[in-house]
Design brief:
single chain; mainly beta; Immunoglobulin-like; five-stranded mixed beta sheet; elongated
Length: about 400
Amino acid sequence: MRRLLWGLLMLGVTAGCSHGTSEQPAKDVPPAPPAAVATVDGYEVTAVTDGGAVEGTITLSDPVPKLSARKISKDTQVCGTAARESQKLVVNKSGGLRNAVVIVEGVKRGKAMPVAAQNAEIDQNKCEYSPHVQVMAVNTDIALRNSDPILHNIQFFQSDSSLFNIAQPVQGQVNKHKLEKPGTIYVECAVHGWMQGNVVVVDNPYYAVTDENGRFSIADLPAGKYQVKIWHEYLGELTREITVSPKAGTVLDMDFKDLLAKKPAPPGAVASAVSGNDSNSKPAREVVVQMHELADGTMFRFEPADLTIKVGTTVKWVNVSGEDGPRHTSTDDPEWETPQAPAVLPPGAGKWRTPFLRNGESATHTFTVPGKYQYFCETHGPYGMVGTITVLP
């Protein structure tokens, strides 16, 4: 009898389970929202059920300057020989500005960070960085790939600091580096000065990069009032306040013409402006050293590379590498030396290190201790950009 009752009980349970699995799930019932998950940066990933959107077009009104082409004259068997258009200012016929990065600031909770931002990569292919502007999540690794059969040396700069400098001589080589601070980063190859790019490190997923038409769209943004920053590598940045309503779109169109008007003289005017300043208003006993590329494009140099001066003379270094030229430093500091570019200082002389100077920027150092000095560019010193100064009493 006990076996019979047990069998009937199991038959009922089985029938009940079979009936349950044969029913179709209700299509109108949404899945339960995930619980909020706090990240290490304080941003919480949570369901956004009534978010709004921000979209618009970033433009640059006429007249749009044409930046000088980039000269290619090194490793031509891989890089080619034809000059390449500048990537710093790309504007279509309608004024749409490409590669502007739109960032909603101060968002503390919302949708998850895109997978692409958590697995960012820069590929060095045919002597170019791809993509030219990369966005990545803070506290994640960026992969640096060399797809070329030649040496590349990739360097990251944040503000005036060099974050790292990695030589990649092997085709297919991949190095990874973690970035722990939000902000914009300038990327440059120490071997091929025309190879330049940008990385923007973000602490929330509400960002976009404008396309070839200057368009952008940011979705699923929780309702509220926000500051939106639009950054462009050549023109600078602007900030606007927006209010996002639930399940509604907010239009943000901006023209960068005012920032363009504040730009310095166009390329080609830098050298004459510098020489004019030096001849008319330079202080007594000042010597100018130019930082530039050799005429054949094979190497970066200080010109003159060897100086003999007297105590009390000021040396002024000016970067004249052109609008798309690389950044340079003048450094005589053992902390930053390499075997190819050692720092040499006379006894009792103070070390120096200038900021990374962009095209047209300058820095000075006054020599008060006689003796022999050897200095270098932190980026290009290992590749021959070294100078000497002999200071006489």
